[in-house]
Amino acid sequence: MEPDHEEPPEGVQHYENKEALPQDIQKYWHQRRDLFSRYDEGIWLTENAWFGVTAEPVATKIAEDIGDSVAREKNVIIDCFAGVGGNAIAFALSGRWDRIFAIEQDPKTLKCAKHNAAIYGVSKKIFWIQGDCFQEVKKRFKNAEMERDAVVFGSPPWGGPDYVNQDVFDLNKMEPYSLNHLHQSFSKISKEIVLYLPKTSDLNQLARHAPEDAMLDVVHYNMNNYSKGVCAFFGKFDFDSSDSG
Known about the structure:
This protein is an alpha/beta fold. It has nine helices and seven strands, in the order H-H-H-E-H-E-H-E-H-H-E-H-E-H-E-E. The protein has a seven-stranded mixed sheet, sandwiched between helices. Helix 3 crosses helix 4. It is globular and about 55 Å long. The protein starts with 31 loop residues before the first helix and ends in an 11-residue tail after the last strand.
């Protein structure tokens, strides 16, 4: 499906060569088709998305792992930090979910997400919400139906690309939202929560949120033999019976 012929929001454009990019993000140019395989068809990226969006192969694998490991009765997924659409598009392409909600606070970024989803032909399969995710989930999804049916997914901001310089990433100092804040907020909506976090995340901090006498599944995601991040799976996810590796 072709996206509507509209202009990108102010400050956003589809770059066709490296030299046109702001100098501080030119180093990400080589991975544009890893971020979106259909980049050349007119993908829009904000400056932050060049280093913040989940790369397509990783987003695809995350979507597969969540869909395969959670109970089939879970048929709603809420993407709380939609960004320019990488994860929401992967969820829609998987065909696993009856309803997909994508929440993004910044209207320009949300416009990019809708545009990019249209390129992949899935924009109309996603319910788009512009607003603060913590307020929106409380207002829209805090009910028995969502607790029963929904998985909450979050790929929160990590505080910029400098996280790579930390041998062990302190999740309780993650900016602007700490692990404690994320877990406390989202667990009011559903017991099944998946957070995509830096590859060097402090596993001891994650383990403190595991149910008593239970293991917390943490999965590393790689691309081109390089670790890109981890997902922590809170709640009932059965990796023993799924095909995830």
